[in-house]
Amino acid sequence: MKPGDRVLHGSFSLDSEIGELVEIYANGTCKAVFPYGVYSGIPLDGLIPAEKVFRLRMLSQVKAEILELLQSGKFELATNVYDEKCAGQWDRAEFEIAKKKALEAEAIRQAAKAAQALALSRSETMQAIAALLDLEKYEEAYDCYRAECQDWWPRSEFEGLVVETKYRHQFIESYCSASLGELDSLYRDRPKNIDFPVEDYISLKLPKVRKRLSAIGMDLDEEQARANARPEDRLLITARAGSGKTRTLCAKAALSIGDEKLNPDQVMILAFNKAAAVTVKKRLHKEGGIADYSNARTFHSLAYQLVKPKKKLLFDAGGAPSAREQSRFAQRMMERILNPAFKEAMVEFFRQELEQIESIGRDLPPVDYRIFRRSLEYVTLKGERVKSNGEKFIADFLFEHGIEYRYEKPWAWKVGFLDGSVYKPDFSIVSGGHDFILEHWAIDPDNPADAVPAHWDTSTQAYRDQIKAKRKFWEAHQIPLLETHTGLIRSGRVGFEASLQRILEKQGIKCTLLSESEIVRRVFENDFAISRMAELFLQFIQRSKKRAWSVDTVAAQLADSPDIEPRARLFHELALRAYREYEAMLTEEQAMDFDDLLMQATQEVRVRGATASIHLGEGRMMPLGQLRWVLLDEYQDFSELYFQMLDAVLRANPSIRLIAVGDDWQAINAFAGADLRFFNDFGSFFPNSDAVGVTTNYRSDSLVVAAGNRLMAGRGQPAKSSKASPGLIKTQNLGDIWLEFRDGDQYKVERDQDRLFLPKREDNRAPSPSMLRLAQALKYCAEKFLEAHTEKTMILARGGFVYGVELSEFKDRLVAALCKLSAATKESLEGQISTMTAHGSKGQESHTVIILDATQRQFPKVHPDNLLFMPFGVTPRAVLDEERRLFYVAMTRAEHRLLVLTDKGAESPYLSALDSRSLGGHVPSYRKSHLPDGLGIFATKIRNQIDVFGDPFV
Questions:
Q1: pLDDT tens digits for 559-609?
Q2: I need a labelling partner for 655 at 20 to 30 A (CA). Which of 49, 309, 540, 624 fits?
Q3: Which pLDDT score, from 0 to 100, does residue 355 have?
Q4: DSSP secondary structure code for residue 515 in this structure
Q5: Is there a contact between 810 and 804 (Cβ–Cβ < 8 Å)?
């Protein structure tokens, strides 16, 4: 190369612009000028002459042209171009490799094209065969298959299409003409190869269901209607509080009777009490238009009508057990077994404490364990409920030594050291005409290292401050304060009682032990002792019989697995003796109880099978073989005996379809033998079943629904509210309710009104703190009733006794005060105000619900006697769960206003669910449910054909 030649730098691409060589240096470098700059001192051998560049550029273009020809399959033309233009410049072997790759790629393309054409041809053939099948030209479809497809279309797949098409035709024909029951049978018996999910089936069936329900005047919401459209032979419907459970059940009965053209009594509805059975029957008469329906009954009624027993039926209250008659029978049983030895054994049982208290409930989560321990009660020889073993020891010692005392007698109202609560010392003792106070501390005040129990909410320092304040209180009142503490119990009961005796005698209180016979006499002079044991024995007997356990069966089980608690073992011995006496009395009196009746009916069905008949009255009979439906109400109350009887009925007539409706959140009858495992494991007891939910609450405003969901969070499907209005939830501390006692004319009106809530006292003494608490509760209820403009108000308590009076007396006092505060008459008030226990409120509803005494000792109420029934599956976990459900039942009775009375510092743990701040973002809104967004392919074909051909029922 020489200056002036046109060149390209070797580091640039062939497409770069050409420069000019300007100067060559002696050291082998040079200077060149390019359009993009001047470069001096670059190696001369790094430049390429322009002529060579042009040749390379030409070769590159020709190679690209040849490769493009190869890729397009023009192999001969590509070879010619190579021979003409590149043979000397592009290596032949490299060209042949490129040509071979192109040939392979072309072969693949041609094979894919041929496969695609074959697939299209086969698809068209398959579609043509499917079209023949749709036209029900089965022979032509088979001929076409054999002629064109049998070598590539598997016979099983073809036969599957035939089966699917025939089933689709059958379904569409049935859809337009068959009953809903027949349609269900067709769905359940569908070929296994058909992809037809149950939700698709329900979506297709639902318009027919709605049409037929509408024809009888029963419009249901989406969930209720879909539950009625379910095809299963065995179905569990979980219906939350206020969700229209009974309406859903009645709709199913009316739909089945009308659609399947049944004798109305071929549908049997079983309820757990007579009132519910009557309600269902009336609703079917009125809403379902079935005037001659009569086959709604209790299990006991069914059993009675199956066997018509010759023996006398005890406790009979018109087809249901009578609590009063049961109590009378139990009392007679107690009279027979209460010999001196049995009485002494009972007193020993009353005296026994829980020895395993620290281990009981330890398997619970920490939060639940704290609730369990705070709520656990102990019963004294005197029949009082106290809070600890130590308090029981003290009460029993005072009782056995004839020392007069009162437990937790209110002494002061709104004391500062208890944050405004009423001060009720543990024991108020009267001896020698003098008052003494005995406080049993949870720690040793003189031991700086002692701490309060872990399950307490109060800190150790706060508790020590309370001890100091109480000491000062009694010092100011000049009443001796006697002190014991839990540290003294570590030496055992005998050692603790010795310490207690020294403390009492130091104050001049004589401690002379009564004779054993006198102690027994004093225990049993109080009817509470006998009635309590009669109640415990009866519960033991009922729990045994609800499981079909004879006396010997229970005895064997207890012998194989004795309780770790001496107290429980002693009770089981006494209870077995009572059970044997109970059975002996039945034999002597030629009588049977309702559990015997259920067992006899079960045996009757097992022996006679489908021929066993239900007596319907007026000479009418319904053989079990003719029943078509059994609908169960309140299924959460199911028990082993009910299952055995129902299982016998279903085995006698397997064609019976079963629907059970209930709410596991309202299972509160374990004490009567109800067992929630039948609900939770429905599929285990009734195979080939399914479960659905009906969750929209039509009773309560949204805040009440949200609070219920929060209380039961993590325990099942939450409820939805149908109402936009939030309603009202309010918690009130009883001690904050003002009672006017101030003098002066300006206070006279309020003072006179508040006196209406206090009992009249002839001696004009100031009311006691317990009277004041009762007056505060009455005033609150009266004010809230008047605020509601006389809407119905339901007042609930945990038990039949509240604020020192029976619930019935509470109502009488409230009504009497309201008669003077308003123009309402006693008769009208009696109809607008109801008082009942939380258990008794199940199934009820009211504009306003007031829950009284919602404290940690009432909700939950954990009685040590619960633990006597561990052989029947009762555990701390089960007890706490049921107590939570009981509070849920109580609060969900409210339609618009839920009001709760509690004590500051002793609030029920369940009240956290009612905190309006915690409900702020959790109010469940009602959203109308729709059909699933898309049907599957098979269901879509059915829907399209129904739309084309029309359905006379839709």
A1: 988 877 788 888 899 899 999 999 999 999 888 888 999 999 999 999 999
A2: 309
A3: 47
A4: P
A5: no
